[in-house]
Amino acid sequence: MAIALFAAVTFAPGQADANENEAVRLWNARAVETLTNGPAAATPGTQFSPPVAFINLAIVQGAVYDAVNAIKGGHDPYLKGLKAATSASKGAAAATAAHHVLIALVDQAPVTATLTTTVKSAIKGRLDTQYDASLAEIASGQAKAKGIAVGAAAAAAMLANRQGDGRFGAPGFPVPAVPGPGEWRPAPVNDPNGWVRSVRPFTLPSSEYFHTSGPAALTSAQYTAEFNEVKSLGAASGSTRTSAQTELAYWAAAHPVPMTYTALRQVAASKGLTISEEARFYAMTTMTAADSLINCFAEKAHWNFWRPTTAIQLAGTDGNPATEPDPTWSALIGVPPYPDEPSGANCVFSGLMHSAKAFFGSDQASFSITSPGTGPGTGSTRYYSRFTDVIDDMIEARILGGLHFRRADVNGALLGQSVANYVDRNFFNCGPPGQCRQEGRE
Fold it and tell me: Is the link from the previous residue into 342 a cis peptide, with omega within 30 of 0?
């Protein structure tokens, strides 16, 4: 999942603060830009890679959900023990929870040559200014004070819960001393965020809770077919792709966090979600996305299967006479620095879309997903009427980009669906009998 700088805040300055019921949506947009924008962007951010950004976004949205749900009630909290008066301002609670967690996440981000202490200070200064603007639009009084208090408590509880969770741990994936046929090897980089596979999940019992069926055997007919498919369609030059297929490949190559959450905010607005419903929607989908990626990266380390680029260049070593090597072959899209099986993009897009489907109890929704692509002239927008149609596009896109064998894409989609189903069964549901009630329309 290649990184592209992409700011996607859909609110005019000052506009959304005037209505505290928009606080959850507004601060989701601010969290996305903070976690994904580059340090040199007009609105600077920490530029976390997709898996790292999703994990940290889940921390933000979990705190926002617990703060708002403590006031509204009616659904299981993520972390138990938070109490709040029903008169407390949900807008103040949401803004405070999001702001406080984001400040902490910026502090926790490792300093780099581009994410300097000066840039981090500028990011936090912007968040402080935005937070002041949010609170200024809420009438002073006990409701506001109580909202601020519960938001601060939710942020503190979430941050305490995530201490020692494995974020920013040891880099890289394990690599055999002498990688053999079918085994992944850095080409040339070993993922500095390989620690994602060891992060404590938000909902799953362990990071290796779900398992895929793994890649096809190198000498099998299925592997041969998938090898020839990606070799033909995914090449940087001389491919058999159509122009529409090339556009799809580039569409899928941008940072998925801005792409998906700009779309999900569209859905939340079009379906008229209340502030409480929207807080639960983002918590449910972000934690599903994060756990899909954590489990996905654990599976990548387990299977350690080579990428198509390596497989095609070294096909003469795979023991399969039906696979012809091409030592000069390269993929259309830059190859991420971690193993093939399963596809991370499909793990997370499937997890997100199945989670959204579960939240609404329906696959039907009208939305668009805009991508900046990987550079000038490669961006595009795709339109959807069903959540799960996005998954079909992503499966094809990663083959067209030369990044995955089809089996890795399909297995990633199945893993993401399994995580979404698990979260739907076990989290964010109605509370004890008598406490579950239809959401009021604030």
Answer: yes
